[in-house]
Design brief:
By secondary structure, the protein is an alpha/beta fold. About 45% of the residues lie in helices and about 15% in strands. A five-stranded mixed β-sheet has the order 1-5-3-4-2. The mean pLDDT is about 85.
């Protein structure tokens, strides 16, 4: 992996990573206003893509850059009408490294749902990480990681329906009880 340093890139050249584990960017109102007043204060991390969407070197005149870190900042910048933002261009990042980087970045967010954390931990395991690796990288206790991994085994579609229902509130204690159900 090689970093090309930080350069300002047009927001029109930046595309979100399709596998960003954070599916819902949340309310961007405050961030958009901050960007409008102060600009982007922390650079994004991006990888260069050719016109066909394949990884390429930054020296190959990339057509686009895919965002690895900074999806919310990009969305806020576009909403604020910002034309270019600072980006760290990284080359040679494997698909697994891209996913792990996004997962590690997002696991620390306080606004992630328990289920999103569970899915993120499961993805990290699927990418070859151990519970000990996740513990070191995320700062979560091993017991919390195991609880989240049990939650990741729940029926995704049913859980999604329940969490989207405004009349239904599923708390952490409910999820802990669901872990005990065998089927």
């Amino acid at each position: 992996m090689k970093s090309r340093g930080i350069t300002n890139l047009s927001t029109s050249l930046l595309i979100p990573h399709p596998e960003n584990p954070r599916k819902d960017l949340g309310d961007l109102t405050e961030m958009t206003e901050s960007v409008r007043k102060n600009g982007i204060l922390q650079n994004l991390t991006v990888i260069p893509k050719d016109k066909d969407g394949n990884d390429c070197a930054a020296t190959d005149n990339p057509a686009k850059y895919m965002v690895i870190i900074g999806h919310r900042r990009l969305a806020a910048a576009k909403a604020a009408g910002v034309d270019s933002i600072p980006c760290r261009i990284v080359e040679g990042m494997s698909h697994d490294e891209q996913l792990l980087t996004m997962l590690e970045e997002n696991m620390q967010r306080s606004d992630l749902t328990v289920y999103d954390q569970a899915q993120g931990f499961q993805m990290m395991l699927d990418l070859g990480q151990t519970v000990e690796d996740i513990e070191k990288k995320s700062g979560f206790a091993r017991s919390t990681i195991y609880h989240r991994l049990n939650i990741a085994k729940l029926d995704k579609e049913e859980l999604k329906k329940k969490t989207e229902d405004p009349c239904f509130q599923l708390g952490i204690l409910d999820l802990a009880e669901l872990e005990k159900v065998k089927s």
